[in-house]
Predict the structure.
Amino acid sequence: MFDHLKEDIAIVFQRDPAARTHWEILTTYPGVHALLMHRVAHFLWQKRLFWLARFSSHIARWLTGIEIHPGASIGHRVFIDHGMGVVIGETAVIGDDCTLYHGVTLGGTSWNKGKRHPTLENGVVIGAGAKILGPITLGAGAKIGSNAVVVKDVPAHATAVGIPARILEETPVDKQAEPKDAAFTAYAVIDDNDKFNHEAMSLALQALLEKSAKQDLKLAEMTLQLQLLAIDTQADSKVASAFDVKPATKKPSSKK
């Protein structure tokens, strides 16, 4: 228990620049309190003291604003930042070194018994307000953007955003070359802005450029065909007069 608590405090120093002292973390961080109380509730749940376990988790929810079912399995060095509104279901499994921000839901989509909540492998980061629903798996090092709704598996080291979530980037990681703390990125936003933060905009602009190029090519082909038919493609004034096109700036004559 004390080893877990030491890890909980140490990981706060790593991932929250606002943390100042051990006493401050121990007394004012609801994520630390929620995890500490969950371990007690989970121990009672494993001893089949179900009501007492649920009552303990209910008290923890009342004190911290974080609801963790006593049946959920949570690994080492998990960090719940801010924490208000976090909901973790009964069959959820959270691996080591994961980070959850406020408003995150690890929920189920079925009323049937059995595994119905997500599994988070090691090093997963879930942004604020994201909803991870169903018995799906988020691979090691996966990142979920804020307010995303994830209903399908996410590969390891991939970034998923949107409603429903789509894979934005999937990058193979060299475990030996990766720095020790490289797995953590606040709010699932990474430092390489050109490559990731503007990825969606870049893809949209690329699609527009490709469409524009195709349209230019089509217009060039049509112009060539018209020229082969001896049609003057520069006769804009003749075409305008044939359709009685009037300038938009011309004012109607006033009646006397």
